[in-house]
Design a protein that fits this description.
Radius of gyration: 14 Å
Structural class: mainly beta
CATH architecture: Sandwich
Shape: globular
Number of helices: 0
CATH class: Mainly Beta
Order of helices and strands: EEEEEEEEE
Number of domains: 1
Oligomer: single chain
CATH superfamily: Crystallins
Length: about 120
């Protein structure tokens, strides 16, 4: 799998879909390999999907311990969430990952779970 070397961001309009890809060096294509679990200082493996206000976005292979502002998708808050990564997603009511987080485990899917920012951390 080849990862781009920059983060894709932008404004969304109603019904739009955006994909955010964590920054990092590109990886060479080659034979399929087993996925390595998330490691400190690295990236989680998988996708985090969230939507709100008729918009949807995906964060692919998010960087661990980085704050992602989900208000880009919906000015009020993201309210449909799927954590398809191998890391815990800490959800915050603030735009800057401040305050007390709510842990959202890998593989979890929920509706009506409002949050404004998310930070991915190692499981365990």
């Amino acid at each position: 799998m080849k990862l781009p070397s920059k983060i894709i961001t932008g404004c969304l309009v109603a019904g739009a879909v955006a994909t955010l890809v964590a920054a990092g060096p590109a990886q060479a294509n080659g034979p399929a390999q087993a996925k390595a679990p998330a490691q400190a200082g690295g990236r989680a493996i998988g996708q985090y999907t969230y939507s709100g206000g008729g918009n949807k976005a995906v964060i692919t292979h998010p960087t661990l311990d980085r704050c992602y502002d989900v208000a880009l998708v919906s000015p009020s808050s993201a309210n449909t969430t799927t954590n398809g990564t191998d890391a815990n997603a800490n959800l915050y009511g603030s735009d800057d990952c401040s305050g007390d987080p709510t842990a959202f485990a890998p593989g979890r899917n929920a509706q009506g779970f409002e949050h404004r920012s998310v930070k991915f951390v190692l499981v365990g």
